[in-house]
């Protein structure tokens, strides 16, 4: 079973454009910073959230790298046409 956020699963990430990936990466990094700060001060209640956010960040970087290498493609606005 995969851990992480339900809205950042690989299938959903493939539908995001590059700007949205950058935005989600920024949010995830900020959340990780906040969680690590809470952990250091003893205020963190859910330790498993740290792992989930780290996995989300890795998933975002993987999708970005795949697009850079041409393995995964950013979604286009054009809908595929049917060939009859």
Automatic annotation (TrEMBL):
A Gene Ontology biological process term: translation
CDD domains to which the protein is assigned, alphabetical: Ribosomal_L29_HIP
Gene3D superfamilies: 1.10.287.310
GO molecular function, one term: structural constituent of ribosome
Keyword Transmembrane recorded: no
GO cellular component terms attached to this protein's record: cytosolic large ribosomal subunit
InterPro entries assigned to the protein according to its UniProt record, in alphabetical order: Ribosomal_protein_uL29 (IPR050063), Ribosomal_uL29 (IPR001854), Ribosomal_uL29_CS (IPR018254), Ribosomal_uL29_sf (IPR036049)
Domain of life the protein comes from: Bacteria
Alphabetical UniProt keywords: Ribonucleoprotein, Ribosomal protein
Protein family according to the UniProt entry: Belongs to the universal ribosomal protein uL29 family.
Identification of the protein by name: Large ribosomal subunit protein uL29
Organism: Allobranchiibius huperziae
């Amino acid at each position: 079973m995969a851990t992480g956020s339900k809205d950042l699963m690989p299938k959903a990430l493939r539908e995001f454009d590059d700007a949205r990936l950058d935005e989600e990466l920024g949010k995830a990094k900020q959340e990780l910073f906040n969680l690590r700060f809470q952990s250091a001060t003893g205020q963190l209640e859910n330790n498993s959230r740290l792992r989930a956010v780290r996995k989300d960040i890795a998933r975002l970087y993987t999708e970005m790298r795949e697009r850079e290498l041409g393995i995964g493609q950013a979604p286009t606005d054009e809908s595929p046409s049917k060939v009859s």
